[in-house]
Amino acid sequence: MTMTAENPTGGRGDRPSPLIVYPLIFLSFVVFMLVLRELKSILIPFALAVFLAYILYPLVAGLNRLRIPYFLAVILVVVFCLGLVLAFGLLVGGEIGSFINAIPQYQQTLRVHIARLLDAYAGLVDRLAAALPGDPAVVPSTPSPGNAPAILSGIIQNLFSSLLTVFSVLSDTVMVFFILVFLLAGARDFKKIIITAWGPENEERAAGIVEAINRNIGGYIIVRTLINLALAILATGVLLIFRIDYAYIWGPLIGLLNFIPYIGAFVGLLGPLGVALFSYESYWTALALLAVLLVIQNLEGNIISPYLIGRKTRLNPLTVLMTLILWGFIWGPVGMILATPLTSCVKILCDQIEPLRPVGRLLGGAVKKQ
């Protein structure tokens, strides 16, 4: 059987060949990602506003059920949320400034720890030299720890400058909340508008996509936010019990970074453990603190979150890791926080569009056998 002129690609009917479709999809994806990166100053506030809208809409709907006019309920919720954000920003900002000013006070403890490490290093080199046959080699002089505290202080200051970039989104607070007001005000009509925008013949499919996004992504964002809020409160309480300085920085930071899969839980421990090492001459306090925080994070990550969130996102671990890197490259720390819900939206769209269903299967988790 020969291929006809009307179907030179050998496909069935008028369907284009996958050799044409998937390269075009890939090129479109690359262009789309580049556009997102170039427009991040505009799109990040909008994405954060959508993220907050999913969290706050249940509160608005609850006030509306209490017979408070809908738009007034929107204003009350947004003003309350804005007040919380500003109060939190003032508290944490003051704590961070105080910590940076207190860094010189940690230098003596830093010298002690550095001297211990250098002594241990020198002893290890001496033992190895004595164990090796032949004449002892000339051992390089042990580096002086005199300038090390100043160097480490500079590193810590640079680290906190980097961490402060996470909170630099607060400079866009007015824009985020301005967009948020309009999102919440029109939330009741958005679903209908999106469904009807695709025409009567596609209303059923559009309704399915919107319902899946609202059910899975909305549920994930709300539950994950509540879990991370509880984690931040519990971590702050633990840090206060251990008398770790600036617990009101580290506790909320642990909760915030927990939005970032895999990496966030680890990075969130570095700050309080570093302060514990700098504040106490013994390592036991830091080890005990590490053990308690690891127990809390393992209970959250392996028991609580899987039970409450379940398979709402339905992404395999490799997908989560790769998209975490991708969204981090595109939008920085904010992209890493939003990586899971954004990728879940992409997967839902792929599942509903026939040519993209193989991509949706690749993004998803393992299929259970019936």
General description of the model:
The protein is mostly helical and 370 residues long. Helix content is 77%, strand content 0%. It has helices at 18-38, 40-65, 70-102, 107-131, 148-166, 173-185, 187-197, 203-241, 247-257, 263-279, 284-309, 317-352, 357-363. Helix 4 (107-131) crosses helix 5. 22% of the residues are buried. Residues 1-13 have low confidence and may be disordered.
Q: Ranges with pLDDT <50 over ≥5 residues? A: 1-13
Helix/strand order: HHHHHHHHHHHHH
Overall mean pLDDT: 77
- The tally of strands reads 0
Give the radius of gyration. Answer: 27 Å
Can you tell me the overall shape? globular
Distance between the termini: 39 Å
Residues in β-strands, percent: under 5%
Sheet bearing the most strands, described? Answer: none
Q: Helix content range of the residues, please? A: over 70%
Helix/strand-derived category reads: mainly alpha
Number of contiguous helices: 13
